[in-house]
Amino acid sequence: MTPKLAFWLRRAGMYVLLTAIALVFVGPFLILLSAAFKPAGQAVFSFPPDVIPRPPVLTWVKEAWTTIPYPTYLLNSVVYVGVMVPVYIIVSALCAYPLAQMNFRGKNLIFFAILSTMFLPGEVMLLPRFLVVSQLGLADTYAGVILPGLLSAFGIFLLRQTFAGVPREVIDAARTDGCHELRIFWHVMLPAARPTLAILGIFGFISVWNSFIWPMVVLKDSAMYPIALGISYLAGVTGTDVRSLAAGTVISILPVVIFFMIMQRHVLEGMRGAVKG
């Protein structure tokens, strides 16, 4: 076997393996997508899978849209994302900057205390959070959903590590030029952490958009449900109607896919920066 032939065989084997892995991850989504557009006479589940609707119909999309107050749930999720994600990023950055670039007593203790909360399962914090929110009179309100999600140990950790990688000489030079800490934070640290901020924004968007357990615990009024909880409500209304449920799920996934496609360039920049670091 010639070296050139061996090279092409290895490359072909690599592409076959990658295609198989991609099908494992993309396959369920393709089945879901096809179920949302299949006519009533075409089987949803079959073997081998038949993922091509014959012909494609919008009946189930219309049914999912009208069976429940779908536009209200979408608007609620947009409000939650629009408020929580920017504030979450700003608060995480403000907490991370002093932990990375300032010297004060107990800094490491505070950082490790924050870091330790990352190892707690989210379910453990449900009851304490609900008790606090109830005592504040915020149960069954938009604020009750939003406030507990404005701070995250993961965001602080990620940005603290990024800020710690900014050369100390740059900070000292800015201080020598008369910049105060807030100006250094805004004009030096945040631009340097732009890829990390983008990654954090994507994680925050996906987390808030898919939030289910906490809104289910704190909300009673279905008019304030986010889209993930609305899909659960749709499942209860439609019962065994798989097509309508698939259509509602596809609609809820589209904003996440679009947002990720817009922001993926920043994700790749952040990954390259992490590898170089």
TrEMBL record:
GO cellular component: plasma membrane
PROSITE patterns xref list: ABC_TM1
Mode of membrane association: Multi-pass membrane protein
Subcellular location per the Swiss-Prot or TrEMBL entry: Cell membrane
CDD domains the record matches: TM_PBP2
InterPro entries given in the database record: MetI-like (IPR000515), MetI-like_sf (IPR035906)
Top-rank taxon, per record: Bacteria
GO BP, one annotated term: transmembrane transport
A family per Pfam: BPD_transp_1
Protein family membership: Belongs to the binding-protein-dependent transport system permease family.
Positions of transmembrane segments: 12-37, 78-97, 109-130, 142-159, 197-217, 242-262
Protein name: Sugar ABC transporter permease
Start and end residues of each ABC transmembrane type-1 domain: 74-263
Species whose genome carries this gene: Streptosporangium minutum
